């Protein structure tokens, strides 16, 4: 009754922004992402007799407050599904900045879902794990798989889950630029709520997101980096435009965010395919070819220190670990 798992973050190229059911975490639109090898979470779950509540250890220290309560609520769902009501000792380590737009919740709940499902004897197939992970964090549904992954919005709990689209076993890269690793002032959940309820652009965003998804899938199958990048970049801008039209308006962008965006445009003008995307945070990810990584790094190094630049490649799906999490 012990299990440990590793899951990797993903970056959405067609964004998920807004829920139609907050309890089940059913999205307003389908989305598509690329799983990354550079950022990941490792988590172990061990149900134990004698515990009166879940014991959560993160980065070697006990976790408390709202983050611990969120994990315990998720574990209540696992206990309900398994009919095993034992509390668990949960040990987790994040190798990714938390709450700053690097999808730490995606890798976090994907790893927790895999470890908890195995420890409590639940179905560990991809579809079942994706549905379970979705209940912790919507984007976690996509981190069950490697490569390009589509999360189908569905209409209920059973039909909303992710499926693999393409293994991304071709020379595509993503360069993550850490503009600011501090937790953001407006959470993704609050940002989504405000946009859905008040933005006059939101209905248009939903239509455009579904249109972008239909256009990007053929480009992925054809390994057309330019088309993938153009669609992803435009999709990100449309999502952030919907936030600017909210009441009150808000943005996650900072001065460094704009700098990276301008450099991407400059690089394209120099004949280097390079396209930006941003989630709910100031940090920017650049989609490019493996062959152009060094030239892009050289350009960005004039504006950002080396520790702010991380090269990520397509990552694998969730995996189980033999050794305990330390």
Automatic annotation (TrEMBL):
It is an enzyme of class 4 (lyase). Coiled coil: none annotated. Gene3D superfamilies: 3.30.230.10, GHMP kinase, C-terminal domain. Pfam families: MDD_C (PF18376), MVD-like_N (PF22700). The keyword Zinc does not apply. The keyword ATP-binding applies. PANTHER family: DIPHOSPHOMEVALONATE DECARBOXYLASE. This is diphosphomevalonate decarboxylase. The lineage of its organism: Bacteria, Bacillati, Bacillota, Bacilli, Bacillales.
